[in-house]
Structures are given as C-alpha cells and as structure tokens.
User: Fold this.
Amino acid sequence: DMAEPIQQLTRNNNPQERQTIPFTLIQRKEKLGDLLYEKRQYGKAKWACIKMKEKQYEQSICLGFMKLMRYICEQNSSGLYLGITIPIVTIVHTNESQSEMTRSVTVAYYLPEVLQDEPPHPFDSDIIIEEWPSTIVYSR
Assistant:
C-alpha cells in the first residue's frame, strides 16, 4: 500500500529539496554539548493535519504520518509530489484536566510556501487543511 509513496519519497530524498519551516528560535536546551530540544515559534500558516486515535500512541503517529505521506506523494488534487517540509509536527492530546495523555494525536505537515495560498485538496477525507495562528513547537 505504501510502495508508491515510499518510491516517490526516495526519488525525491535529496536533503536540498527539504524545506525547513521558517521559525524564530525562542530557547535551545543542551546537555554536555548535545542538543536536547529547541523551543520555536512558527508564524501563521496552513498545515495538512490528521487526527488519529489508535490503541497505542506510536501506532497513531505512524498511521497518521503514512496518510500524510500519501497526500504529499501525489494523492492530492494537483496530482504532484508536494515536497517535504521539516519538521513534521505531532501534537499530543491530553484529557480535560491535562493530567494524562490520551491515545489521540494530531500529525501535521506544513504546506510549502508556494502552496500556502492555494493548498491542493487531499483525496483522504481524514486529512484537513487548517490555518494555524502563530504556534510554539518543541523540536528535537
């Protein structure tokens, strides 16, 4: 099922073709010279998002990512490979009291700059194009 998207990604797996999402660095946490994480602020932008709720958190992330890869690799209204932007963001959801993580996660792909004004529509109805306000992201 994923053979074609993986082949497409492999054909396009040139690091120069990966677009880093523009951000403002807020904080950088290191330990003994190794980067632990960065706290970044991303500007208002459109993202392709999918919410998953599998039995295990890791399954939700993996399946969400695979669905997004299909969208990126031609299963969209343009019929074109959209290009990779990094990072792919995972949002972990918590219960109402914010005391526990739930199984629900959102996996999100920043649409490249050239697609921000008119993003291609996904063929998968589970994928939604959302405009996010300025957003704080922790990146490893």
Notes: The beta strands are 19-20, 23-31, 34-42, 45-53, 85-86, 89-94, 101-110, 128-132, 135-139. The domain at 45-131 is CATH 3.20.80.10 (Multidrug-efflux Transporter 1 Regulator Bmrr; Chain A). The radius of gyration is 16 Å.
